[in-house]
Design brief:
The structure holds two protein chains of two kinds. Chain A is of the alpha/beta class. Chain A is built from 18 helices and twelve strands. Chain A has a five-stranded mixed beta sheet. The radius of gyration of chain A is 22 Å and the shape is globular. The chains are: A alpha/beta, B alpha+beta. The interface between A and B is large, with 56 and 42 residues.
Chain lengths: ~450, ~160
């Protein structure tokens, strides 16, 4: 069993309620932070912890916090990004649904560190029942003196508000989220100015992911240095991985980033192997936007090293032969899955979710979907593969926000590693409608533990 | 048709607006539109959007442009229950195609359509964050997960019963 810092109490009956959460040691970090520390020393601890943003980008949290401007007389805001929408990702949902007070605890400490008196949780609109759970938890925390005016007699005031989105993946991008929180369309802003200078209502704002903010609790409790000892290299602490697809045990797992990808997929403690005893074909290890890897490159790097479940190892080899840890949305595809079809559903997703501001993304995502649709349904030509490649290349890096990149990468990686499957589809327009390309060379050399 | 919130709905609107600073009441637009949609017929006719604009002291166009951006807001009449079935990658590899086909067959409607009796609307949606519990669909506030054909049958029966009784 690996170290657990976030989900260690997840199985305690009633942990969702304040009473049980507090009895299990909850809200200790608020006492410590507000009574024994000051905002600067909290930021220092977070820096020492090496915590990196858990939403997908992996930017160092302490550094992000240190950028917040502090102009005299201007309120600052902390916003929790609970707009979890990256296909394959459902970890924040789990945390909020089962241990809502852990998020609130992290939010109170972080609000104190950043000087936010009105903190917002922007939650995706579809998580309506979780909105109710969070509202309930906020009421409990308020009734017990952890929110509101003069918390613990320190004079610190903090209010937490839950704001429901309404179905838009783009609102997970921090400036789009801010626009949406202002009651507008979720169109990302051009940076600079960065939110830390001009964010919500033009005030200094920090936007952090749910898991990132929850991780503040163990960091304060154990100290940044101790936290940094868990994990490996620049992948410190623990990470929540939401595993899905063709595996025996889909679900949310907390890992300490020292386990191998192979162990994660095949061990009974985690995914429990491929469903139905089938072979592993491919995997998207960090949410739908990160490059898909064939089995051979997933379990071992191009140089034959074991691949581990952490930021550095998963990205070893760059996009040529590696991928990313991303949001931790771990999507496993077995031998029966069709890469063309999978890529088509993702292309459709990004076309649907493009906000439409930037031409390369607005037009390009539509073209990619149409071409993939053509290939999937037996009407493709070999030149279509090159056209797809050309389009994705022209989207990447040419848009205001990273949605363009997120849409381009899955298509690029699918062609990079599975070009022969695309060609097979095109050369076998009839056969490809009733059967799949299968494994071919992808699973070789694959080692399935007995 | 004109729309007016009752006292309870108005109190809820005021609670929503109070979360944001003075003069920033436009921030309450998304929550207000959810409230409006849930309070009336499950969709947002122009008159209802105009009413919300008036309450939040913003221009109607500011409401229209937002309502048309977010996929949860319905701009056309819908059935009493909307089956929002996820079709994105992780659900697709877990068999959502079969579930979607089965629902179409059972309800005799295509995606985007409503049954003749006005009870069910079928909508295909993109990832709802239930990838580990696929295939799935959202019905109202609830996620219905690990869908099978048998489960779809019982879900349809369950909602139909609430209408006929």
């Amino acid at each position: 069993m690996g170290v657990k810092l976030l989900l260690d109490k997840a199985n305690v009956p009633g942990i969702r309620t304040y009473e049980v959460y507090r009895r299990e040691g909850g809200y200790r970090s608020v006492e410590k932070a507000l009574k024994e520390m000051n905002p600067e020393s909290i930021v220092e601890e977070v820096k020492k912890s090496g915590l990196r943003g858990r939403g997908g980008a992996g930017f160092p949290t302490g550094m992000k916090w240190s950028f917040i401007a502090k102009p005299e007389g201007v309120p600052r805001h902390l916003v929790c990004n609970a707009d979890e929408s990256e296909p394959g990702t459902f970890k924040d949902r789990y945390l909020m649904e089962f241990i809502p007070h852990l998020l609130l605890e992290g939010l109170i400490v972080s609000s104190f560190a950043l000087g936010s008196h009105d903190t917002y949780i922007y939650i995706r609109g579809e998580y309506a029942w979780i909105t109710d759970i969070l509202e309930e938890a906020i009421n409990e925390a308020k009734a017990n003196g952890w929110l509101g005016k003069n918390i613990l007699g320190t004079g610190f005031e903090c209010n937490i508000h839950v704001h429901r989105g309404a179905g838009a993946y783009i609102c997970g991008e921090e400036t789009a989220l801010i626009e949406s929180l202002e009651g507008k369309r979720g169109n990302p802003r051009i940076k600079p100015p960065f939110p830390a200078i001009q964010g919500l209502w033009q005030r200094p704002t920090v936007v952090n992911n749910v898991e990132t903010l929850a991780a503040i609790v163990p960091i304060i409790n154990m100290g940044g240095e101790e936290y940094a000892k868990i994990g490996v290299g620049r992948s410190t602490g623990t990470k929540l991985i939401s595993a899905c697809g063709n595996i025996n045990k889909p679900g949310v797992y907390e890992i300490d980033m020292t386990i191998s990808v192979e162990e994660f997929i095949y061990s009974d403690e985690y995914c429990g192997g491929i469903k139905g005893g089938k072979q592993l074909k491919a995997c998207i290890p960090g949410g739908s936007s990160v490059p898909i890897l064939p089995a051979n490159l997933l379990l071992k790097t191009a140089t034959g090293e074991t691949r581990y479940m952490n930021y550095e190892s998963l990205s070893d080899g760059g996009f040529a032969t590696g991928s990313m840890l991303g949001s931790g949305g771990f999507i496993v595809l077995d031998e029966d899955q069709c890469i063309v079809k999978n890529t088509l559903t993702l292309a459709r997703f990004y076309r649907h979710e493009s906000c439409g501001q930037c031409s390369p993304c607005r037009e390009g995502t539509g073209w990619m979907e149409k071409i993939l649709h053509k290939i999937e349904h037996g009407h493709g030509t070999i030149a279509d593969i090159d056209l797809l490649w050309d389009i994705q290349r022209k989207i990447e890096g040419n848009t205001i926000c990273p949605l363009g990149d997120a849409a381009a990468w899955p298509v690029a990686a699918a062609i990079r590693h599975f070009r022969d499957e695309f060609e097979w589809h095109i050369n076998n327009p009839v056969l490809s409608q009733t059967s799949n390309f299968g494994l071919q060379h992808y699973a070789d050399p694959i080692h399935v533990p007995a | 048709m004109t729309y007016t919130f009752n006292d309870t709905q108005m109190a809820e609107l005021n609670r929503l607006v109070a979360r944001y600073p003075e003069g920033k009441q436009k921030s309450a637009l998304l929550p207000a539109l959810h409230l409006a949609q849930d309070s009336f017929d499950g969709w947002l006719p122009t008159e209802l959007m105009d009413y919300i604009a008036n309450l939040l002291k913003i221009e109607p166009i500011e409401v229209y442009e937002v309502a048309s951006f977010y996929s949860m807001f319905n701009l056309k009449p819908v059935g009493k229950f909307i089956f929002e079935v996820c079709q994105t990658g992780p659900c697709m590899i877990s068999g959502s195609d079969d579930i979607i086909a089965y629902i179409q067959e059972k309800l005799d409607i295509k995606p985007g359509e409503t049954t003749k009796d006005g009870v069910f609307t079928l909508k295909l949606v993109e990832c709802l964050g239930a990838c580990g519990y696929a295939p799935m669909m959202q019905v109202g506030k609830i996620f219905r997960e690990h869908l099978t054909k048998e489960k779809v049958d019982s879900i349809i029966a369950e909602y139909r019963a609430t209408v006929t009784n």
